[in-house]
């Protein structure tokens, strides 16, 4: 056991750096087109094909969220109104202010100068429909509705999943403190709950595609994506049992194993995309098995390596540049697709490199001048006493 401040106990530089990598993967997924079918040169085909698997960056974010929420709250979680209020306030201060400002900007542009793109509401949407869409965006519940899951800041559909996890996490941690066996029970409970909600909503609440179908539940909701967060919690539980001061190694075998596993899953996803009809149930089922269940395991192994092994990758991720990019990765993730991207692409340039550089700079400015100051202003008062943790 080591005694440390709550701030140092919950900050892992290499994991901040890996957030930048995850955001970059998602950017490539959205920004790099696949080469035309008639292109025969392999080295021209493969960059686009690999970029199309960049959505695995979302899985990295989910595993990281599970780990960080768990490691920060294992020794703190309690069923009291004050604790829960501070917990929710801190989560709100972290994700909502910047999201709200970008959402307000997005809908203002939709109303004043619509671009008629896929992330805007339909031209046939009534005033009532628009009010529902705006309300669903402001309350972070929009990704429960298939009809407008991507309307607004398009990448922010994942915030509905994050919000669901944040509200569930205290109860999950309390259960695990009572018995680690809950770790194996939670996925079954969540997936069965998701199936039940799909059946209920299809039968009695078929509004705006609420929990529309099984595919939607497994892809766009916490009920289907819960394993990614739970793997992160499992990693936190393991780290909690093994003090880092006693276990840092100079080898890099664990980090290498995790990275190799991630690359293997990426190649399997690429093979799947090329070998089976993309809309078939077989392809979808294998894709969900790989993305939701198998991929989180090597991600967690890689994160373990970054925590416990001194490697060149860890040194890069702990550099000042990687730290800045990691801290601004949330802003980058929100702005790299949607209204700002459309405006930049239409009126400046659609060049991928130019967009990457411009959005990186803008994300850093948003982090320093908007996101971080508002986070400090709105978060709950910090505890002054030292926190005893096993990290």
TrEMBL record:
Pfam families, alphabetized: Acyl_transf_3
Single GO biological process annotation from the record: polysaccharide biosynthetic process
Acyltransferase domain sequence ranges: 14-365
Source organism, top-level taxon: Bacteria
Segments crossing the lipid bilayer: 12-32, 52-71, 92-112, 182-201, 221-239, 251-272, 292-309, 330-347, 353-370
UniProt key word Membrane: yes
InterPro entries: Acyl_transf_3_dom (IPR002656), Acyltransferase_3 (IPR050879)
GO cellular-component term (any): membrane
Keywords noted in UniProt: Acyltransferase, Membrane, Transferase, Transmembrane, Transmembrane helix
One GO MF term attached to the UniProt entry: acyltransferase activity, transferring groups other than amino-acyl groups
PANTHER family: ACETYLTRANSFERASE, ACYL_TRANSF_3 DOMAIN-CONTAINING PROTEIN
The protein's name: Acyltransferase
